[in-house]
Structure formats: C-alpha cells, structure tokens
Amino acid sequence: MADAHRGREESLDVIQRELTAFARRARSTAARLHPDLPLVSYTLLAHIEHRHGCRATDLAAHYMLDKSTVSRQVAALENLGLVERHPDPDDHRIQVLHPTTAGVQALASTQASRRAAYRERLGAWTSEDLEQFAEYLLRYNSAGEDTSPR
C-alpha cells in the first residue's frame, strides 16, 4: 500500500512538472505566433468566437479570472481592433463581445500556426495515442470546472 501511495505521489509530481513546462512553452509559442496576441488574449478571443459572442463576466467566470484582469484584456483586444461590443438584443443594458473581421482573421492565422506546431510535435503519435491524450485532457479539464478561484 505504501508503494502504491509513493508511486501515485511520484506520478503527480511528474504531471505537475510537465504541465508547468507545457504552460511555459505555450506562452512562449503564443508570442511567436502572433506578436499582438498574447496567450491570454488569444484564449479570450477564441472563447468569444467559439461562443458566438459573450459578456466579459462570462469570460471571467469561465476562466476563473478577476473581472479587472478580463477588463484589461478585453480593452487590449478592442484597441487592436479584434473585438467589438454590441448591445444584447434581449437586454440593451448588457454589452456582448464579438470578434471583428480582423479578430476572426488573427484567430484563424494563429490557430493555423498552432495546429501546424502540434502536428509537428505529435506527428509520430498514433491516432489511438492522440485520441487517448485528447480524452485525458478533456477529462482533466472538466474535473476542474466546478472549482472556484482561490
């Protein structure tokens, strides 16, 4: 039993170390792929596009970010001409964020570059390995959806 516990703890240490390396690499790669679109901004823009528009408070809740952090990031996206606000058709007091044409283009360009980088990095993996990895990532990320910011 002690060996199983120790093995589990060692595995958790490896996972933590490798996820940290993954995050650092992702931040570094994001800056190279689109210099005006840092990783946080890219992530928010991608979410806005995926949701076909959303409120800043939705972004803060989804990514467990402080509203002021989201506000600064959204302002930067607006200044770059990548996002614009439209009144909610059901409640004109609410502003809904939407990507601009330039935002959709920047996102498509960045996504194509990222996809190419993943293809290169994971090119030797089998389809089964990729499916399993994708399933594990989905499982890992969905396990944290009900947690609140600490």
Short description:
The chain is 69% helix and 7% strand.
Structure notes:
The model has no long low-confidence stretch (mean pLDDT 87). The longest helix has 32 residues, at 2-33. Strands 1-2 form a two-stranded antiparallel ribbon. The chain is 69% helix and 7% strand. The chain has helices at residues 2-33, 39-50, 56-63, 67-79, 101-121, 127-143, and strands spanning 83-87, 95-99. By secondary structure, the protein is mainly alpha-helical. Helix 2 crosses helix 4 (67-79) and helix 3 crosses helix 4.
Quaternary structure classification: single chain
Compute the number of strand runs.
Answer: 2
**Radius of gyration in whole Å, from Cα?**
18 Å
Helices, by number, come to: 6
Q: Helix amount, in percent?
A: 55-70%
Run of helices and strands? HHHHEEHH
Terminal residue distance:
32 Å
Gross morphology = globular
| Percentage of residues in strands | 5-15%
Structural class: mainly alpha
Features:
6 helices, 150 residues, two-stranded antiparallel sheet
Write the layout of secondary structure elements.
Elements: H1 2-33, H2 39-50, H3 56-63, H4 67-79, E1 83-87, E2 95-99, H5 101-121, H6 127-143
Antiparallel strand pairs: 1-2
